[in-house]
Automatic annotation (TrEMBL):
It is a multi-pass membrane protein. This is Sodium ATPase proteolipid component. InterPro entries: ATPase_proteolipid_c-like_dom (IPR002379), F/V-ATP_Csub_sf (IPR035921). One of its GO terms (cellular component) is proton-transporting two-sector ATPase complex, proton-transporting domain. GO terms for molecular function: proton transmembrane transporter activity. Belongs to the V-ATPase proteolipid subunit family. Its main location: membrane. Keywords: Ion transport, Membrane, Transmembrane, Transmembrane helix, Transport. Gene3D superfamilies: lithium bound rotor ring of v- atpase. The chain crosses the membrane at residues 47-68, 80-100, 120-144. Residues 9-68, 85-144 form the V-ATPase proteolipid subunit C-like domain. It is found in: Membrane. It comes from Rikenella microfusus. The lineage of its organism: Bacteria, Pseudomonadati, Bacteroidota, Bacteroidia, Bacteroidales.
Length: 148
């Protein structure tokens, strides 16, 4: 396989998996918000913030692209392309899984708020844990971009 095609495959995996994960994560939490609004419409602002949390992983995929796009030239070496593929796989898969799990945590928080529990602040702290791993994926892509 040509090195440039391998690099583009890495970029595609990174963008697709992070975007699909964010789509699923926000859908999971959005479905919970729709159900919770039947009980407590007044907490829509909290629901909206919690629903938005899994969307950041899709943005991380785009950030990864901007970190690596300077290497997408016809002169790219096989080592550079392999590094981009590895970074794309790492960030894409971690973002996919992170956003799915974050959506589930957000859905539980939304359900609890809908049932009248005051858990918004604590839930934001818990939502940061899956987010951390997506941020580490971005950090890995950053370090890869600096090394190649």
């Amino acid at each position: 396989m040509e090195p440039i095609l391998l690099a583009y495959l890495g970029i595609a995996i990174m963008l697709i998996f992070s975007g699909v994960g964010s789509c699923y994560g926000t859908t999971i939490s959005g479905n919970a918000a729709v159900g919770a609004m039947k009980k407590n419409k007044g907490a829509f602002g909290s629901y909206m913030i919690l629903c938005a949390m899994p969307s950041t992983q899709g943005l991380y995929g785009f950030l990864g692209y901007f970190l690596l796009k300077g290497f997408l030239t016809p002169e790219i070496t096989m080592a550079q392309a392999a590094a981009i593929l590895g970074g794309g796989l790492a960030l894409g898969l971690v973002s996919l899984w992170s956003s799915l799990r974050q959506g589930q945590v957000a859905a539980n928080a939304i359900t609890a708020i809908g049932n009248g529990h005051d858990v918004f602040g604590n839930s934001l702290i818990l939502l940061a844990f899956p987010e951390l791993y997506a941020i580490l994926g971005v950090a890995a892509v950053f370090f890869i971009s600096q090394a190649i």
